[in-house]
Amino acid sequence: MLTFQPSPIQSVIWPLATQSGVTVDIKRDDLLHPVVSGNKWRKLQYLLDDAQARGCARLLSMGGSWSNHLHALAYAGKKLGIETEAFVRAHPEQELTPTLRDCQRWGMTLHFKSRVEYAELRKKTRWDAWQQRFADSYWFSEGGFSLLAIQGVKDIANEVQQHYDYIFVGCGSGATLCGLVSAFPESKVVGVAAFSGAEYLTEQLQVYLPQNTNWELDTRHHCGGFAKTTDRLKHLQQELESGNRFLLDQVYNAKVFLALHDWLSEGQISSGSKVLVIHTGGLQGRQAP
Predict the structure, then answer these.
(1) Domain boundaries, the chain
(2) pLDDT band of 1, cuts 50, 70, 90
(3) What's the whole-model pTM score?
């Protein structure tokens, strides 16, 4: 059984923010659970409920070698007693990342796919997309993207009592961004893409946000690609961790602060503004090279 409590909001001690006259807080969704933390749980909760209500005996999904989504799904499946399988964008001869080793340890079966094959998988969106090949299965799109996942993210508004001018969050599939945009219509929500070539997401997400203009996708702070890093990112991560009582991963959350650093430095956020960063968990990503 998986149980969770609302996550706290804490002040971020950051000289750059102080110099800019900007208040920065962080919502510690990484504290929701040691493994199924952050936006992973918020996106999975209603999907898992739906899968169980339908009596599905197998959970299927897709992701890369450092997928937080697959990591969370494998653990949730183990705890719920449901089989899990995943299509992974990687070559079978590659050494498994710590993330995928965890998935295997928790019983997830991995099927390796080429980039072309993986791209085809993105076209499958229905929960029953694999019923013919895998009976009684439930399909989770990449990153868990679905209307149920977006609804789960929207619930975060119930835990935030004050107004923020800006909300910054890491962005992969875009489900978390969509949920926050809907949940906080009076705030500007900035999704920081964790991978290169994410410009396509803007058009794709507009389908789910036809009436919303309170959001922006930042695509210039991916540091070379998913799970890639730079010395600049590492230095900023060290600075923030040394001055605060939280840890960051370089796959998503450190890149969010890198984007916020440049927004502050470039004067894109005016003095007196309040910013909330959503810590989306996934700290196993700290093992990425």
Answers:
(1) 9-35+153-287, 39-144
(2) low
(3) 0.92
